Amino acid sequence: MDAHSKPNAPSLDSYWMPFTANRQFKAAPRMMASASGMHYTTTEGRRVLDGTAGLWCVNAGHGRRQIASAVERQLLDLDFAPSFQMGHPIAFEFAERLAEIAPGGADARLDRIFFTGSGSESVDTALKIAIAYQRSIGQGTRSRLIGRERGYHGVGFGGISVGGLVNNRRVFPQIPADHLRHTHDLSRNAYVKGQPEHGAELADDLERMVALHGAETIAACIVEPVAGSTGVLVPPKGYLERLRAICSKHGILLIFDEVITGFGRLGSSFATDHFGVTPDIITTAKGLTNGAIPMGAVFCSRMVHDALMHGPDGQIELFHGYTYSGHPAACAAGIATLDIYRDEGLLTRAAALEADWADAIHALKGLPNVIDIRTIGLIAGIELASRDGAIGKRAYDVFVDCFEKGLLIRVTGDIIALSPPLIIEPAQIGEIVSMLGDALQRAA
Ligand code: PLP
Questions:
Q1: Which spans are transmembrane here (predicted)?
Q2: What ipTM was reported for this prediction?
Q3: Ligand 1, residues 161, 232, 260: which to mutate, most atoms within 8 A of Cβ?
Q4: Is any ligand 1 atom within 6 A of the Cβ of residue 224?
Q5: Considering 342, 367, 382, which residue would you say is the last residue of a domain?
Q6: Using the 8-state DSSP alphabet, how is residue 322 labeled?
């Protein structure tokens, strides 16, 4: 008997699942019951190797007692306190700890931090801060936002407006935004380890947007340094540098959405450090608390922050915030997570594993239907040829097959994305490649 058909198992009817084919799932559910280290255990008692750090978030691995204990202590000391016109020390402590690792160098550190509850909230917060900043420096006509095709910035109205995924956009109205072309180009950049050679010139799209709309209408440009959710798109060499230069030239704020790349995914604290290009604002979530408690954080430069710290005495500088901004339990989880990252060297571990990871994953080249493999840090994208008239079906079959054999992967369209916890051992990289390779062989 399946666990979900046991006498006391809950009915599957009431829970409306997010980003899920509800009817398909409920006909054949996949249920996780527990997790520890690199593994989940399903409700049937099967172990599943986590090839995706949950959803790009469990960077320090599962079941970290240190995080659980910190959250428990905090909930018993102070479970909640309002953060509007009130404070609690742990939120200031966590912000200070984040400021210590914030990128940007001594002179331009992005060390002013606004807390949110998720990646989507971080993105909408960053976009609002950018528009408020422009207004505060006398650039009130700048409200247009620039995103990128195949960008994913969560599901708020701001995020879907700058995002570039048609399914997230077509049903909903949006705020004024335009989009750079994406940088994915298999004809020039297939099977690359690290940054592809070709495509820096695509950043010049931003000049076209300036010519089309007028710089005086554009507040900010937001991109993921490495696009994750839309299939692992690594920026071509020189691309981010060029985007930075064009933004600076035209007074446009540059926002890096580091919800996936933040906290060690590329082998440094942030992608900003990895690529050596510093934006004005960074959005984060996920690895911020190791996925244990929902939370996001927006890192702002002092230039952005200080421009808003004006106005009459007692005036609220930014009319924005969430009931759960700086939630004590989330801050406790975040501080414990940072301790683990520091003590176990996890923010740089992906750099040490990167070469072996890339070699292992690229060995899947040549398997049936594989048309591209790309890797950077501890991320991999494996692109499959789509079946005629059935985009996404082949990768979905591989996903289900892998899950049944004991490996969790993630698929978007016909692209498989891998992003294991940063605690992964070399032997487990081998297990991922072997299980995935077998599934690819079986997927006709
Ligand atoms: N931004 C990026 C780059 C993401 O990858 C995600 C989620 O995958 C989000 C924003 C949204 O985060 P959340 O699902 O926590 O709202």
A1: none
A2: 0.99
A3: 260
A4: yes
A5: 342
A6: -
